[in-house]
Design brief:
By secondary structure, this protein is an alpha/beta fold. It has two domains: 234 residues, Ribonuclease H-like superfamily/Ribonuclease H (Nucleotidyltransferase, domain 5), CATH 3.30.420.10; 104 residues, Serine Threonine Protein Phosphatase 5, Tetratricopeptide repeat (Alpha Horseshoe), CATH 1.25.40. 55% of the residues lie in helices and 11% in strands. The protein has a seven-stranded mixed β-sheet with strand order 1-2-5-4-3-6-7, sandwiched between helices.
Length: 405
Amino acid sequence: MTDMRSDRDLYAGELRDLLREALQLSIQGEYSIHASDPYFFTKKGYAMETEIEKLPLSPLSLPEVLLTWAKLDTGREKRKEDILVLDLETTGLGRGGIIAFMIGLGYFENEQFIVEQLFLPDPDAEVNSFDRIMELIKSKSLLITFNGKTFDVPVLESRLLYHQIWLNLREMEHLDLLHIARRLWKNKLPSCALETIEFYVLGHIRDKELDIEGGDIPQTYFQFLMNGDPELIKRIFIHNHHDILHTQALFTLICNSIDYPPVRGMDIRIDYHALAMLYKSQGRSDTAKRILIDLLSQGIVSADIARDLGLIYKQEKDLDSAIDCFTIGADLACPVSMLHLCMLLESHKKAYQEAVTIAQKLRQFLLSRSIVNTKKVAEVEKRIERLEKKRTSARKQVRNPADTH
């Protein structure tokens, strides 16, 4: 019995060594120094830009408008060496009962951007992989993720706690690019998924022959655990590598583009109307106004731009400029512009006939919607009735000026 067990152990050890060698030859990485259950890792350095599209990877600075939006400390200097990019590949999409079998990491070292990937050739290697994660996290101060607040960080926290390791990730400053991406591009893109942003904003197209769909990743890892074929997981390495690389490229683009006026000129990839609203949300209406004026001066006209510039002018009591903007917005069928134009024509210009015309246009617009807001329609009809009374009264005063004394 002892000899049979020894033979099985010897065979298992030889098979394990063969599988490790095959993985190392296929993926070109190294094993950690742990005596038992080592994790597998790869590293690749970039000279501050991606290889194909030459996308910059090192931000010129971290703009205050971004730090303020993310509720980060604006009084503390942040260097590129403080950054740690994180992306996990897991055995499922939930938070409980899953493991992160691949941990993608990005950081700056010796004037290069390094993409490092930790992979578990066996789930038992998970606890050893945390040695490297903790080493990096303790040396960095700004975590960059894409949807990390909802997914990556909670998963990592749960796995650390499972192994009775305490690492307070919530103390680390964290910038989740998904949320700022939604703020900047939600009105321009079909979705704000990372691959969608890669295509429309960064100009990168993933090779479907080399990459892998996210939904196929868990099952592919399970297949690897059953047969040890490293070719199965090559595509997962590529997928995760792209996630890390383009998360950093997106972060760099945002940092280099949202200071205003832009140092390198306006970038057609940026939705400057959305950027103006970001500044306005922080009480910086002066910068928001400047952006919107610049857009109109370049012939970039939309109902949203005209409406929001008009609202800023109105808030500043520059009512003539507000009327000019709301007139553009009304011509572009913007209901908010129509309403405010109607109000200013009535109160500021006393142009009741013009106000009636705009109010009737607004009423028709509201009635043409697929779902009619009867309350708003009633309010506009009441406004029309009041304006018509004022118009009639004004006409009578013009005909009989003596009646005014």
